[in-house]
Amino acid sequence: RALLREEELSLRVEGFLSSDPSLRGISIVNPKVIGNMEELSSIMQQANIGKIIVAMEDRRGTLPLDELLKFKSDGIKIEDGISYYEKISNQILVEYINPGDLIFCDGFKLSYSALFVKRAYDILFACIGLIIAAPLFLVLSLLIKLESKGPIFYKQERVGKNEKPFFIYKFRSMLNDAERKTGPVMALSDDKRITRIGKVIRKTRLDELPQLWNILKGDMSFVGPRPERPVFVEKFSRH
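Above: the chain sequence. Below: its structure as tokens.
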């Protein structure tokens, strides 16, 4: 489905092969299943195939390895389905990640030089951002104060690197004490607790500007995962 959606790839899908002979002629997505694994060579000769994408959940004993190696040596592109999906969609198929992929991959630890550059980048651009955004801070502070009672800034406990808790800062976009009755809940698009100016700054992400201070302090980084609330981190970890 992802491949057929990406029209700019200019690829024509000739058809699917299946290890189940009963699926021949059936359109699983579109186009149809045109054969099984044993017919790969004859199909390759009949059609002008330039790429084979292997997207099988169970490959044990079903892949024609010798034929695929021959096609590879003949210049035919052969790609793994999961990797190809990630490349064309910029999304990860989380359900297909196995522990081995994480254990043997690189990228979990940065070198000291990379950490230094990353921190220097954060400090530099946080300072520049705070200077440029200073007039906006004044305007938004005034608008928030005029519309509803309560503090201009909103702080909330979040979980950072190595599960270290910290307080994240935002411009207040909801009524003061918005969670006093409901407790911790995710905000919805039509949330009645959001003020009029709050809707604007949430939509434009201007409510996030005070997080430049969090970045300058070292609580967060410009590039990194979203810091979530402890109650949700505990819930996500459990599930």
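The beta strands are 16-17, 33-35, 51-54, 77-80, 153-159, 165-171.
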